[in-house]
Amino acid sequence: MQTIKQAVAGTVESSDAQVMILPQAGGLKITLDSSVYDQYGQHIIALIIETAQALGLDDALIKVVDKGALDCTIKARVETAYYRAIGQTTNLPWGCSKWQ
Amino acid sequence: MAVTNHIRRSMIFLNTQRAALVKEAFVYHPDCVIFDLEDAVAEGEKDSARIQLYQTLKNVDYQGVERWVRVNALDSDLINEDIRAAVAGGAEGIRLPKTETAAEVQAAADKIAAAETEFNRPVGKTMMMAALESPLGIMNAYEIATASDRMMGIALSAGDYTRTMHAKRTVAGTELFGARSQMLIAARAAGVMAFATVYTDTDNEAGFVDELRLIKDMGFDGKSCINPKQIGVTHAVFNPSAAEIKHAEHVMQAVADSKANGVGVLTVDGKMVDIAWVEGAQRTLKLAQAAGIYKGALV
C-alpha cells in the first residue's frame, strides 16, 4: 500500500474537475458530483478508477466535482492529485503506457 | 533552420492551467497555439498545468494547428520537467522565454534532444523558437537565431523588453521600433521567421489593425495573440489581398513570357518589374495558397 497524504487538484470552473484524494484503507472509493451525472456519471467513475489503478493507487477515497470536463482533463486532475499525494513533482513517467 | 512550410500568421497563447482554454482552442482556427507553462500559470499550479498539457497533447485533436509550448526559463528548476512533458506529448515546438544568448538556446536544445531520446521521438524533430525580452537578447538576435538547426523563429516580447529599456509603452509602438527592426534583420539574415509581440488592449481593434499593418509592412511573419477575437483580424491583415494576388500572378506570368522572349525588364500592371520581383510574387502566392485563398497553379 502506498503512503499518501490528502491532496487536491483542479478547480470547479466550467470544463474543469476538482479531484481530492484522501488516505483510506479497504480499496478505492469514489464520490462524484457532476453537472452531467445522468449522462456520463458511470463513464466518469470508470475513468477515475481506471486512472487511479494505472497509477497504482488501490486504497483511497477519491472525491470528484466535475463541471463538464473532458476525459483528458479528468485524468490530468486525478494524476495531479495523485502525484501531489505522494509528494512527487519531477521525473514523472511521461510517455509510459499508464499515461495514455 | 526549421522554418518548414507551415503558415504562422497567428500564435495564440493559452494558459495551460485552465481546462476551458486548452480543450478546444482549435475551433478559432489559429495557425499555431502556444500552451503556456510560464507566466500565465500560478507558481503552485505548475505541476497541474504540465500534466494537463501532456494529456491535451496526447488526447485532443488540434486538427492541424501547430502546437507549441512556452516552457519556464532556463535558470528555473521547472524547465527540465516542462521539456520532458512537451516532448513526450509530441508538441511540434518549444518556445524558450527570456533568451539572451546562443548558449541558452544550445542548452535548451540539448535538453530537448535528451527528452526525444528518452521518449523515442525522432531526435531533432522538435522545433524551437526564442523570445527576446531584453536589450541583450535583441543585441544577440542573430547568434540566437542561428544557435541550433531546431530554430524556427524569434519573437519579440515587449513587456520585459520595455521595462529593461526604461521605456514607456506607446500606442504607436515607438519604443519598440529599434528592437523590431534589429530582430527582423537578424531573422532574415538567419533564415528564420519573426514574430511580433502581443497587443494587450484587446478592446481596441482599430489600434490592433494599425499595429498589424505596421508589422506586416515591416516584414514580420506573424503575431502573438492573447484573445481568440484577434485571430481573424490578424489573418485578414496578413493574407494577401485579391489585388496583391492578381498582381503576383501577372508578375509570374509576365516574367515567364519575358524569359521566352529574351526580355529582361517589363511592365506589369503599369509598373516596371524585373527578375527581382519574382521572389516577392512567389511568396505572396505561397502565403495565399497556404491561407486557402489561392487555388491557382503558379506557386
Describe it.
Chain B: This is Aldolase/citrate lyase family protein. Chain B: It comes from Lactiplantibacillus plajomi. The complex is a heterodimer of chains A (100) and B (299). Chain A starts with 6 loop residues before the first strand and ends in a 15-residue tail after the last helix. Chain A is built from 2 helices and 4 strands. Chain A has a single domain, classed as Ribosomal Protein S5, domain 2 (2-Layer Sandwich). With 100 residues, chain A is α+β, with helices and mostly antiparallel strands. The longest helix of chain B is centred in the C-terminal third of the chain and has 20 residues. With 299 residues, chain B is α/β, with parallel strands linked by helices. In chain B, helix 2 runs parallel beside helix 3. In chain B, the strands form 2 sheets. Chain B has an 8-stranded parallel beta barrel, surrounded by 6 helices. In chain B, strands 9-10 form a two-stranded antiparallel ribbon. Chains A and B meet through helix 2 of A and helix 2 and helix 3 of B.
Look at the structure and give the CATH class of chain A.
Answer: Alpha Beta
Number of helices of chain A: 2
The total of beta strands of chain B comes to 10
CATH topology value of chain A: Ribosomal Protein S5, domain 2
The helix/strand order of chain B is: EHEHEHEHEHHEHHEHEHHEEH
Report mean pLDDT of chain A, rounded to a whole number: 93
CA distance, first residue to last residue of chain A? 24 Å
Structural class of chain A: alpha+beta
Number of domains of chain A: 1
Mean pLDDT value of chain B: 93
Order of helices and strands of chain A: EEEHEH
- Strand % of chain B is 15-25%
As residue ranges, the low-confidence spans of chain B are: none
Tally of helical segments of chain B: 12
Strand order of the largest sheet of chain A: 1-2-4-3
Terminal Cα span of chain B: 22 Å
Q: Which word captures the global form of chain B?
A: globular
How is the biggest beta sheet of chain B arranged? 8 strands, parallel, barrel
- Major sheet size, sense and barrel closure of chain A: 4 strands, mixed
Please tell me how large the radius of gyration of chain A is: 13 Å
